[in-house]
Amino acid sequence: MTTKSAKAEQYTTIILHIFHSHWKRGVEEFEFHRDELVAASLSAGVDRPDNLGDVIYSFKFRRELPADILSKAPKGKSWSLEGAGHGRYRFRLVQIGGNTFKPRETLSRSKFPTQRPRSSARMPSAMNRRSSLRCATTVSSTYFSV
User: Fold this and answer.
1) How far apart are CA 86 and CA 34, in angstroms?
2) One pLDDT digit (tens) per residue for the chain, 146 residues
3) How far is CA 42 from CA 7, 36, 38, 116, in A?
4) Most C-beta atoms within 10 A of its C-beta, which of 28, 55, 68, 144?
5) Phi and psi (nearest 5°) for 87?
6) Model-level pTM greater than 0.85?
7) What domains are defined for the chain?
8) Cα 38 to Cα 24, 29, 32, 137, 146, distances in angstroms
9) Please, which residues bridge with residue 78 across strands?
10) Looking at residue 30, what DSSP letter applies?
């Protein structure tokens, strides 16, 4: 089993390899594919991660990008790692400070139903157990016809 520090070093090596294979001075953003994580692990000589998505997730949400990557950003900007489509990711320079979160425009809005199902709104209180049992039987036979 891989220890946390070994996993952190493995992820860092992979993300550094991907960054340096795409980055050139003056580039403000570039994309890469999920399959490049496997190729990067092979060429960097580290074990392939069991969960490829965790490599990206860890640098998006749990820890900072390696100092070597952050040092390549111009003054007042920082590198950000974000999703760029199905199986694609993007390194992008963003302004430091302010709101760096930008919702994806490809996502649609979801309408969430009310917290309480309609059937429970019609159920009587548990005070009258016999009535509750009859109602529960009626509701279950309505939804699960025998």
Assistant:
1) 9
2) 467 777 778 888 898 999 998 888 888 889 999 888 888 888 888 888 888 888 888 888 888 888 888 888 888 888 888 888 888 999 888 888 655 555 556 666 666 665 555 555 555 555 555 555 555 555 545 555 54
3) 15, 10, 6, 51
4) 55
5) 75, 15
6) no
7) 4-95 (3.90.1150), 117-146 (no CATH)
8) 22, 21, 12, 54, 51
9) 94
10) E
How long a stretch of residues is the chain? Answer: 146
Please classify residue 82 by burial: count the beta carbons closer than 10 Å to its beta carbon, then call 0-12 exposed, 13-18 middle and 19+ buried: middle
HSE toward the beta carbon, residue 122, CA cutoff 13 A: 10
Tell me, rounded to whole angstroms, the distance of Cα 29 from its chain centroid. Answer: 20
Q: Write the DSSP string, 64-112.
A: PPPHHHHTTSPTTEEEEEEEEETTEEEEEEEESSS------TTSPP-PP
Among the listed residues 23, 70, 50, 31, the one whose alpha carbon sits nearest the alpha carbon of residue 11? 50
